[in-house]
Amino acid sequence: MKKIEAIIRTTKFDAVQDALAAIGVKFFTLTDVRGYGLQSGEKRIYRGADLGANFIPRLQMNVVTTEEKVDQIISTIEKSGRTGAVGDGKIFVYDIESALRIRTGERDTDAL
Q1: Total domain count, the chain
Q2: Domain range spanning residue 35?
Q3: In this predicted model, what pLDDT tens digit does every residue of 30-48 receive, in sequence order?
Q4: 3-state DSSP assignment of residue 87
Q5: 89, 77 contact by CB (below 8 A)
Q6: What CATH number has the domain bearing residue 66?
Q7: In Å, what is the CA distance from 47 to each residue of 31, 54, 58?
Q8: What global pTM score does this model have?
Q9: Contact in structure between 57 and 34 (CB atoms under 8 Å)
Q10: Cβ–Cβ under 8 Å, residues 48 and 19
């Protein structure tokens, strides 16, 4: 099993979600994140003081899947999330040792 972590533009979420649904991905988790990188973002001001960092809002999607589907999911996220400009995001892939569905006790790929 693999975990795919994709950090994407907030404006591309609907396109990525629709594209994943079209290939049968029915479950993922979503987190609002803020990052710092090559693209300039917004100034962080706290109590009138500039904190000196430009953070950019993004979305982090996490998909756990079987190894057979990894390349298709990555390709789908890449194509539907791309604008061609700096700041399109990143995709990371991790190994998953085990999974458990709490409700039923199913394990590993049965839990997906």
Answers
A1: 1
A2: 2-111
A3: 999 988 776 665 566 666 6
A4: coil
A5: no
A6: 3.30.70.120
A7: 27, 16, 24
A8: 0.84
A9: yes
A10: no
